[in-house]
Structure of MOT6 protein:
Amino acid sequence: MSQGEAAGRGSAKPQDQGWAWMVLLAAVVLQGLTLGFPCCIGVFFTDLQHEFQASNSQTSWFPSIMVAVLHGGGPLCSILVKRFGCRFVVMLGGLLSGLGMVSSSFCKSISQLYLTAGLITGLGSCFSFQAGVTVLGYYFVRWRTLANAVASTGVSLGFTLWPLLSQYLLDKMGWRNTFLIFGGILLNCCVCGAIMRPIQLASGSLLESAKPEGEAGSRAEEAQLSNGASPQHPTLQQHTRRTKCFQMLQKYLAFDIFCQNKGYQIYTIGVTWMMMGFALPHVYLVPYAIHNGVEERKAALLISIIGLINIFIRPVTGLLSGHRVFTGRRIYLFSLATLLCGLSNFICVISAEFSVLILYCVILSIAMSGVGALTFQVLMDVVEMDRFSSALGLFTILESITLLIGPPLTGLLVDITSDFHYVFYNSSFFLISAALFMGLSFCALEKQNKLRESSKACLDIPSRYQYSETSTEPKAESQSPPAVQYITSI
């Protein structure tokens, strides 16, 4: 490759300097546009109900589908990133997000919103966000932890600004024109993607376009089988296809880890159960406040308060949890934060006055900061880093299922009882039970490991399921960033 071609396709060794900081700025904006966007849907909840004469359950399917696809589309995004690179996937996501919201402004029924704003916009946001976070792993090596922490502030900025902008535009021009404008705003993901140019390796190849390590081998094996497997051997061809499918599932969905690693099993089940109640306040807080006489502008401000506090608390929480004092104990901090989220919901049951709801938002935001900062750090503690990407694929898909069905089921309960208090009762039940399950289970697992270690000390056999941070250190050959990561945020 000539120097001119190299300059046109990417600069060599740009990590941690120069253009990398522009990429980080683009990642901040990208996370605010994608992950922060679903938080504003509650502002439109009442208007959409009146427009389509829909129930609480029917209306809540719209944000549920969006959030579920945003979290569960990781494996598909991974495949696209491997094939086309991060920049292309980010820009594709921006186009899908904008197209989904523009199409939503012309919808004639709530079911059409499920497809346009729910599926299309959710999938586009997933592509842009996850590919945007993946590219940070290429641009930052020394400052990678700092870069991810700074990029996550974009989520909090989105939580703060989207509801305020939504309420302002809704008052001025209605929800249809607002959705149309949102489509144009989300197209800025394409601008962020254009900034994330591919990185050139020292060998002259593009890191983002690098093929998986086993691809060449698999192609050679395929060619060999093709030559050897004539039409007289369909069984061999079918076996090859089944083997490839199994390898794909093993690569992106780590069922073997789920069956063998007790820590990962407990944590995945606990977080999946937790997500049944975690998203409920985001969907129903604004409708609940309006239903109890709070002015619409003040109701929208409640979500912004949660985002504003997150901007300052989440980085602090991340730094504190990284202290060596909490080594091997982050799961208990995570369980404590989840428990606080669940207990805070009882504040809304006591009173729906605006001042009380502000207090609720402050406490909920502090607890949410802990959950958001620790979710993936705890996962790194219980899973080896060389399998982290696969473990996270299964983790996000399972949590997306409960994110999808949680709000509609609660909305159905509200429709039957005509009592919004069940939103917070449900949320508290799932959060508190999940916190107790994870905390007590890991405590029991830790005691079991200690007994096993003491009984096998004479044989010098390490515990198979030891929950320890030392067992999850990346190997020497795994220091470079993985080609693909599934990253979501809460």
User: Anything to note?
Assistant: Residues 144-186 form the longest helix (43 residues). The domain at 17-198 is CATH 1.20.1250.20 (Growth Hormone; Chain: A;).
